[in-house]
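Subject: Predicted fold for Septation protein SpoVG family protein, 182 residues

User T.R. writes:
Posting the sequence so we have a shared reference for the thread.
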Amino acid sequence: MSKDVILTPEQIAAEERRWLLDAPIAELAEVKGVTLDEAVKLRTDAVLQEAAVPIEVTVRPIEPQGKLIGFASVNYGGVVIDDFKVVDGKNGIFLGAPSKPDPTSRTGYCSTVRINDRATQERLNAAGAQAYHSAVEKLIARAEAVRPTPIKEQMAQAAREAGKENAARTAPAKKKEARDDR
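User M.O. replies:
I've generated the structure tokens; pasting them so everyone works from the same file.
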């Protein structure tokens, strides 16, 4: 008597993934009930779907103008797209698609880039937020590096250094002072 094993949806997905990506093509064809050519196509489609296209984002922060806080360039698998808007929305920082003026549209603008895949848009937003924070940190570090030290701090530092130098000196020997015969 065999026990019925109940698999969770995660286990079923893992098993499906194993057959599509790891099992030999002949076994994949047998399990799916398809020809070898169809199994190869299934494997190829699965591998392509699994392959993540690299996303690199560079951000140019600006003085905030409403919710607009910068502009970005996105390198998506070797294709560079400029003029994404970095927006600080109610749910955090995200990248708005570049657009061009269009007097026939309701908003007066037309997007020049569309991202239909939600997962890609989330990856893009995460990379954009990280790049924005990194760019702001660099700007702050540069500003701190070139900012002159206030006069009060300079005077206090000079006093500390003078105190150290004076403490390091040996005290002059005290002698009787020669008197002039007056």
